[in-house]
């Protein structure tokens, strides 16, 4: 909603196509018809440039209601199996521990897959933005029946800013300028709050 508002206030039309995360990144980087991809967390890169923030999302863990997990540091999670998304940037510390093999993970291409696995207790925790969690449990017909089985762990990893990633070329710079100017003309926080408050929260 934020990106749509920012683009439209500048007199343009937004067309969005939904793909698994790694394919979205690949298409944006290789197909000229795509101006960028979102939502993305910031990371150091020479290949892409980032818009101004399009909002923020609390990154944390979904868990099964019958087996909640108490943890104070990521070291406490070495004995549990995490569900992650292929190609996602999480937090530096978590990604380093995953890369070093300190935490056992299973990777999938969609958040909904992790939530289904979590409902069946095939994993102990699933890394997910809490807004995405609420959205999926309210809008995905295959997940609605899992509402009583799944919840967000009360401790979050980070409240992360969200961005659009554009290819670092003239076309990407052009659309970054358009979006950034549009973002300056709208109330991002109000749009985010209105949108997510309209989504039924999982019970």
TrEMBL record:
The lineage of its organism: Bacteria, Pseudomonadati, Pseudomonadota, Gammaproteobacteria, Vibrionales. It comes from the Bacteria. It comes from Vibrio marisflavi CECT 7928. This is Solute-binding protein family 3/N-terminal domain-containing protein. SUPFAM superfamilies: Periplasmic binding protein-like II (SSF53850). Gene3D superfamilies: Periplasmic binding protein-like II (3.40.190.10).
